[in-house]
TrEMBL record:
Domain Spore germination GerAC-like C-terminal per the UniProt entry, residue ranges: 1-66
Name of the protein described by the UniProt record: Spore germination GerAC-like C-terminal domain-containing protein
Coiled coil: none
InterPro entries: Spore_GerAC-like, Spore_GerAC-like_C, Spore_GerAC_C_sf
High-level lineage: unclassified sequences, metagenomes, ecological metagenomes
Pfam families: Spore_GerAC (PF05504)
Length: 81
């Protein structure tokens, strides 16, 4: 499960880099934490973003599997019949 999540995040990030789309907001985070450095990088951010090296770590724990919860609306419909 963790590997599947990791692959999904990694593939999504690589696609975003290919498109030059900072969908995770790294530029905004950089601006908030390091505004001076951001100002220097901003003019070239699209090119810099495409070259960012990254790694993904996933730590997921499932409490229960196979449980499906019905919505209140579904419960009410079942009791009407």
């Amino acid at each position: 499960m963790q590997e599947k999540i990791k692959k999904t995040i990694t593939d999504t990030f690589k696609s975003a880099q290919d498109l030059g789309a900072d969908i995770y907001g790294f530029g905004a985070a950089l601006y908030q934490k390091h505004p001076k450095e951001w100002r220097a990088m901003k003019p070239n951010w699209d090119a810099l973003f495409k070259d960012i090296d990254f790694s993904v770590e996933v730590d997921a724990h499932l409490a229960q599997t196979g449980q499906i919860v019905q919505s209140l609306e579904m419960e009410e419909r079942m009791h009407e019949n």
